[in-house]
């Protein structure tokens, strides 16, 4: 738990500084949880009550309906996980969150975090800044999905996160990139990753 909190502090500090009292209060709301592979953490239609910080493992958020399944995002150490829009708005999620591998996560609740934001204005600033960076990432990804060719999407993903090829099933990577499994397989065979 202590090592996990050190990683969490490092992550938060890179976003926005906290004083000793703020960090003490913030570090006190997290609990360590371990989950088996393929555990559903959030179900579409339910409100996301938890924010996670990943210590070990890989998770994926995805959308599914009668005709489609689309992987939206992967999370892995040392990043946040959860269905962010549902967590921040406390409205029902349209998405699922599951563990792809056994996962060790720090977890807190919306209520605990909200109480700290009410107590410490600086923690509220930290969460707002974190949400801003998350939004920036979503918009960058949106541009990639709309404007990049299949090969450009493939190269961009593996330049940014080269480790995912060995860790995540290719069908989920193809879904994340917005392409079918055949196109993904062709790119695997022909594109050289540097």
Automatic annotation (TrEMBL):
Organism: Niastella soli
Domain of life where this protein originates: Bacteria
Name used for this protein in its record: Crp/Fnr family transcriptional regulator
Database matches in InterPro entries: cNMP-bd_dom (IPR000595), cNMP-bd_dom_sf (IPR018490), RmlC-like_jellyroll (IPR014710)
Cyclic nucleotide-binding domain segment(s): 33-120
